[in-house]
Amino acid sequence: MDSIPLFQLQILSAILFAIGFGTVLIRRNLFFVLMGVELMLNAANLSFLAWSRVQSGASTLEGQVAPLFSIAIAAAEACVGLAMLLAVFRSRESLDTDAFSRMKG
Amino acid sequence: MNLHLVLFAPFLASALCLFLSSTDSKSVLRTALVFACAIAGLSIPLVGSGTIATVSHTWFSVPVVGTEIKWLLTSDGLSAWLIALLAVLVPAALGLAPRIAGERLREFAALVFLMQGFMTGALLSGDLLLFYGFFEAMLIPAAVLIALFGGRDRRKASLFFLIFSLVGSAPMFFAIWWIGLSCQTTELSVVVERITTQTDPTVRAVLFWAIALAFLVKLPVVPLHLWQADAYSEGPAPSSALLTGVMAKIGLFGFMRILIPLFRIESAQYAGVFVALGLVTVLVGALLALQQTSLRRVLAFSSLSHLGLGLAALFTFRPEATSGVLLLMVAHGLSAAALFLLAGVAETWSKSSHIDDFGALASRSPLFAVFFTVAALASVGLPGTAGFVAEFLLLVSIFKVYGLWIAILAGLTVILSAAYTLRLVQKLLYGSPALPSPQPVDLTATESLALLPILVALVVFGFYPNPILKAARADLLTSLPVAPVTATQDAAHVVGR
Amino acid sequence: MGMENLLWLIPALPVLGFLINGSLSLASARTHNGPSRGLSGFLAVLFPLIAFLLVLKLHFGLHDAQEVVRAQNQNLGLHLALPQSFTQPLWSWIATGDINLSFGFAFDGLTSVMLLFITGIGTLIHLYSIGYMAHDRGFARFMAYMNLFLANMIVLVLGNGPIVTFLGWEGVGLCSYLLIGFWHHETANNDAARKAFLVNRVGDLGFLMGLFLLWQILGPSTPLTYQAIAEWFRDPAHSAALASGVVAALLTTSTLLLFLGCTGKSAQIPLLTWLPDAMAGPTPVSALIHAATMVTSGVFLLARMSDVFVHAPLTMQVIAWIGAATAAWAAVTGFVQTDIKKVLAYSTISQLGFMFLAVGVGAFDSGLFHVFTHAFFKAVLFLGAGSVIHALGGEQDLRKMGGLAKKLPITFAAMFAGWYAITGLPFGAGFWSKDLLLEKVLLQGGTALYAIALGTAILTAIYMTRMMILTFWSPSRVEHAVEHHVHEAPLTMQVPLWILGIGSLVAGFAWAGMIPGCSWFPAQLASIVGPAQALFVPVEHEGPSAILLAGVGVTASLLGIALSFGLFRRGAFREKSQAPLSGFAKGWTLAFDTIHAVVGIWPVRISSWILEKICQPLLSGLVRLFAYIVSLVGLATQWFQRPRLRVNLSMSALGLVLILIFLIFHARTLL
């Protein structure tokens, strides 16, 4: 682990983020959009951890707490998001984002 | 504290109105009139209390740049008389509203009180941004009133009104923002002191025009007047009465309270432009009034013409012009509002607004005829009404600064206003009835009582205008820029004094 | 003392009458008959009568006050100035800047003379109206307007300065408007009323502007009262300034503009067109407003400001020539009229021309004397005409009258007295005033003006005799249906006829120049117009004797009367034709209407049409164009706002990237 330099970790994080963002932009299926969001969150977590390693002292802890926090939030978000997804699917019979141009149920 | 009471009372009344019965419009009318009279009782005494102000609080300060926005209410003779005018007009407007608003009187009253509150706020603000807030906010109830209670083309009129006003005052917002950045505050009295040192002349000229535009649209003057006739003729008559009675005056008030004190040099420099705009407005307004075939459009253009004279005279910077303009605002506010209200009543009788659809109201509705005649004569500026004293002072000041020919040009309003007003009087009151009406109809007791103070005030101030003249004199003489070289001084030189 | 504190009551009393009668009229609007004729008529006469008595009391009070001082001067060898007026400043009316105008009244010789006949004849005409208007539903309203008119007329005369006068000046215009259009169901009446008001407003604008100029000459520190104005112009210290070119030019412009105001109110060229139309009002209105009082206020104003006008010789010339031209023009026009009231209207214009002619040559007192006598004889002529119209059930056409002398003896006697006076037959009121006037015109104005005036006097005799012949002396042409109902007027109408008839025979003795002791009239005016008249140098000092001139005047009237009878014999009056006025006769009267249309009305209408039909649409087109451009921009930006999640997100991402790039490259400059 020690041998992986910060730079490479950042690159990995950026790639993960880009893949996530790309998924969000390109996929029309809401399910995949949600997955793309998860991927972006995890990319951010990775970046946090990588930075926390180069720091020393108390701030190391901050770098490790933030991903934990975000994982918890992401879990909650996935929960609510999937529930909404189901609700939407039930009412619209579709998960195509382009079909949802109106907020009216 | 008192000023806060005056400011918040209409808002409170507006909120309370919403809790009134939605079906019993008689009780709504009674309650609303009680509210309006209570507000009048609170605000009319301001007239006698001279210049007062609340303690200046910092309302909020803009992050990063640190500009302080104050919550400050001030009242002097100028704003006190206009607030008193408003306080007299609102009961009259409400008193005549049931014919127009019908079942929805509750909402109508709430909106009128809301408008009164915002107008009061604009008149009392001692801070530029605060003023701007009220100045813009008063458009909302006005536009809603037009859109909800207006005539056939109400949507279009309302939209036109709103867009013209918003576009007109948008530059003012940027000007105030700029002033706030340069002077570190938007408190009017502080800005007056700082602005000459904190901004350079080119910027000031831009700021001057940006602010002037808002007031020119509100007044309005001739190339910017298109919204007016529609808004006044399509809106419900009581709201037109308040629009011309007070809101248009806030345009003139803005010149007197904000523009001229802030930009003395620019005001003197561009005075000629404003006088020219004013005179063009006087003449074009009067000529257009002659051509109109709709009752309230005649009145709308008449208002345009009268206020144009006020603008032209204001920029002569003569002391008598300042007093005259305040008196004009009060006199015209009263007479024009009365005419609009009465026009609204007449329209409900004949179910039309075309001037050929009236006639013979003098014999059918004598009380109405008396009221209409008195208001019309006051609007024509017959001596013995306040309108005459105002017109006299304005013409004197134009004469003193710009000489005989320009004064005659402005004075043509004396003839033209008589022409279009008497045409209206004749079409409405005299001749034979255009539409057969089985029943003679007239104003109700409530309506007459609501209008009576207006007419009494018009006559009283015609013979004793000095309280109003003094109010303007005390407050504004100090803020006037130096007048241009006058014709009078030349003559005095020749006569050897 | 204390007398001056009564001044405000003189206008206040008729105002009270107006308020009471007006309220009565309003309160009974829904009843069938209106308020009791007796009560409202009684009130309407009562208040002017009290005002008249008050004026009498003040008149003698002023006289007594002068006597007291005169006696003191004699007994104690003092040289105290005689009190010339009662003044009552009431309150500060308009005070702002360097303007300070007070509202107040002043009562002096001129005021007293004017008020005596205004309230006196006014009361009589109110009395007459009770009979004349008895069957009119608007009786109380009529009385209210008449009272209001009287109050305004009193304010006009009694005001202590031109601004207070202006209040009355426009006030009488308003009442004139309301009364001309009294029968307002007829559009023609309303049009006439509106025309009167508008034409007068043109004059009023002149009045105001002239006043501003005058004020500029006086300087703002001079209070704008007649007394101060007169003192300023009489002050020798200002004579050099008055002689200088700039001030003289200002003064000429100012006086010409003031005179424009007078031509409006007194129906002179160029603003004379409204008066003939004003005959649409009830006849008492024509008698009171459009003959005896209001229309003479122009002459009154000139006399009031005589000190100002004498310093503008050009203006005086203009006044004299306009007066002469109007007198002649209206006299010719009067000859071709077929409506009895129109004849009298043009006669009034013509007589007013005489007054202006006198004033223009500097004979202010003589002009005013003609105002005084004219008030009597023209009032009686109008009231007599009213009585005739009343008797004939509303018929005003001279061609449908005739032979009425026997049927209406009292009316005939009264009108005969009026006719006797106006034609200038010996010892009637017109004889004294017109001969005095002609004499002054010859002495101070020259032969040209005198010739016009004398010619007009002949014309006056012709058209007035024509009117009398057609009404009373010629064979009857009254329609049979009407003839049975011809009846003499009720007593309320007869009494004023008697009094005014006698008045028009004897009023001239107030200033019978040839009889010693008969100079009450000029003595009243001496202190007001005396200094101004003294400045006016007569063109010829030595003229023909007064007796000779009087002989010429009487000969002229006799000639006119004889000519008139001669023309009648030859059938020149065409009294049997039924055709409406046409061609020359009509064109003659309407010449000035055409001029007004060309100069005033059509330019206004055309420019107003252009503004409404061309400029307004252009302007709103411009606004529409602007709105269109804005909406195009809106359409363009709408493309970015498509309701697609992916597009929106891409856009925000793009924005974020752009901001980041900007921050990276410009971070240094920002920090």
Question: How would you portray this structure in words?
Answer:
The complex is a heterotrimer of chains A (105), B (497) and C (671). Chain A has 105 residues and is mainly alpha-helical. Chain A has a single domain (6-96), classed as Helix Hairpins (Orthogonal Bundle), CATH 1.10.287. In chain A, 77% of the residues lie in helices and 0% in strands. Chain A has helices at residues 6-26, 30-54, 58-92. In chain A, helix 1 (6-26) runs antiparallel to helix 2 and helix 2 runs antiparallel to helix 3 (58-92). The longest helix of chain A is centred in the C-terminal third of the chain and has 35 residues, at 58-92. The termini of chain A are far apart. In chain B, strand 2 and strand 3 (68-71) form a beta hairpin. Chain B starts with a helix and ends with a helix. The model of chain B is unreliable at 483-497 (pLDDT under 50). The mean pLDDT of chain C is 88. The longest helix of chain C has 56 residues, at 583-638. Chain C is built from 25 helices and two strands. In chain C, 73% of the residues lie in helices and 3% in strands. Chain C starts with 8 loop residues before the first helix and ends with a helix. Chain C folds into three domains: 1-87 and 106-148; 161-232 and 241-581, no CATH class; 592-670, no CATH class. The chains are: A mainly alpha (105), B mainly alpha (497), C mainly alpha (671). Chains in contact: A-C, B-C.
